[in-house]
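Re: weekly structure request thread

Next one in the queue (383 aa):
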Amino acid sequence: MRVHLEDLRSKKKAIRAVKDICVDKVVTSSLAEKSRFFVFKIEEVSPPVATIIKQIAISRGTDAAVHRKVIVNGIDESNVLLPGSIRELKLIAKELLKQPFGLPQIGLEILRILKEEDKKRDYKIMGVLNITPDSFSDGGEYFSSRNARGRFDEIVKDGADIIDVGAESSRPNAEPVDEEEELHRLKGVLPLFSYSPIPVSIDTRKSRIAREALSSGAKILNDVSALKMDQEMVEIAKEFNATVVLMHMKGTPKTMQKNPYYDDVIGEIRDFFLERIEFCFSHDISHDKIILDPGIGFGKRQIDNLAILNNLEVFTSLGFPILIGTSRKSFIGNITRRPPKERLSGSLAALVYSYLRGARIFRVHDIQEAKDTLAVISNLEDV
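Done, posted below.
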């Protein structure tokens, strides 16, 4: 006789484990849901709301942790920890839909996050095309229209899922580029957007550039200012029903690495995301059109970059896909003492770590290597 723990967080693993027991096929799905266990944290709710959540949880065979003063209404707000199997949590969420005090919204959010959890094994590789003379890694290499078009085709051929095209460098100390120059740099590849077999992302902070790119067939708006620099950006995103990447950056590319400082880098980025998400919602950008990027290297010290990667679950818990761009970044060079084009090993190590921490979109320069690495690590997880 042997007794051991099973990690069955993924749907595939749970179904396989149940099938291995040779149960009746009719109950496989139900038992798999009962075998997967999660804990939700519900923040800043009133005592009546906390009490109702706890009562419903107990009625469904689990429980909820609430502040000790909730029972006597001796506190204004309480956080709630709600543990349970997938099956229990779905039943609790559906019961919350029938309750007052904003509880239906909590129920819907629990159901949405559980649905997203099953998608987390999917990942996307975003290939980088910098049409600039001064990007930190490949500045000037694809600056001519001919080379840019060649690289565009190469990224598609190498198996990327998304291609991210930018014509203004956002490296530390980069000088801003005016609209006319940025548009001029893009002219050679804009005709390729509508024919691309994979989605095109436009990396820009300017609404005029965004409009041109989206009109040409781009599907994703990757704005390093998270729609803050140009007030028209959110309207452009809404008009074209574009997916938006909200990236955290302290300052601007010109100033971001001039003595950045945080009291709590993880908390500050999380609060930034929450504010930007609400901003998008208020402008009718739907949940499924938002991607979050904590901005490795954008106004961050070495310790900040490492802390972000080590705490990605704080951001994945918000329920949106997390994009990570660690490829060839300086924090890797600070560890390996290698120049940008010799940072492949370090980049792949950071990619694997980010994947295991929950990131699912990876902005990379070395597409084939990243693709092979993710294929191996994702298959190892599914065994």
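The mean pLDDT is 89. The CA atoms of residues 200 and 218 lie 5 Å apart.
Next request, please.
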